[in-house]
Design brief:
The chain has 200 residues and is of the alpha+beta class. The protein folds into two domains: 4-87, SH3 type barrels (Roll), CATH 2.30.30; 102-198, SH3 type barrels (Roll). It has helices at residues 4-16, 77-87, 102-112, 173-182; strands at 20-24, 32-39, 43-49, 55-62, 66-70, 116-119, 127-136, 141-147, 153-161, 167-170, 197-198. A hairpin with a 7-residue loop joins strand 6 (116-119) and strand 7.
């Protein structure tokens, strides 16, 4: 359960435009060095900072999982912020992303980006599924037409319980490379699908 202090820290980071280290209460989940660029009732949108101190895509994480979101514990935060500023890299938020409902979030992300990474970190923290969302079923399962690490589209959709999803990634360099090679080929399968890839 997210605390009032965490929400205050996220709002402060959003207002200040300074990067923070986001740590979540999920065993094995990645820490995320990022700018808070939007905050909703259920999800928080981050513009992530890569290890090379470049902005590299956006992560969206469940608000309730956030345990810590400040500059403390990230000794390189000031250097990263300064380097990005000098390079002319500015954090930004995709327009009209729904951070209040998960179904709305999926719809708006898939409308803005060709590929989405889907994580269920409480089940498998080092596995993600990458592909094109094809909506949410009545039983609250996300249908995802996956693309393999070889940039080959699966012929049918995998299904993922919406309640299990803890994080989405969009717009990073790896996803862009997969889309560049794999293209926009999609089919509306609905039953079986990929097994995910290791994301670390």
């Amino acid at each position: 359960m997210v605390t009032g202090q965490v929400v205050k820290d996220l709002r402060r980071a959003l207002k200040s435009g300074k990067p923070v280290r986001v740590i979540r209460a999920i065993d094995g989940a990645d820490r995320l060095d990022a700018y808070v660029v939007a905050l909703g009732r259920r999800w928080v949108l981050l513009h992530t900072v890569s290890g090379g101190m470049h902005l590299d895509g956006h992560s969206v994480v469940r608000l309730r999982d956030v345990e810590h979101a400040t500059r403390s514990g990230w000794s390189g935060a000031r250097v990263a912020h300064r380097a990005l500023h000098l390079r002319g890299e500015r954090p930004w938020a995709p327009a009209n992303v729904d951070l209040d409902t998960t179904t709305g979030l999926i719809d708006t992300l898939s409308g803005a980006f060709p590929l989405v990474s889907v994580y269920a970190e409480e089940i498998a923290p080092d596995i993600c599924h990458i592909g094109r969302p094809h909506g949410v079923t009545r039983k609250k399962n996300l249908r995802l037409q996956e693309i393999s690490p070889r940039a080959v589209w699966e012929s049918a959709c995998s299904r993922h319980r919406v309640a299990d999803i803890t994080r989405f990634d969009v717009g990073d360099g790896y996803l862009d490379a997969l889309h560049t090679v794999g293209g926009d080929l999609t089919r509306s399968g609905c039953c079986s699908g990929g097994r995910g890839i290791r994301c670390r």
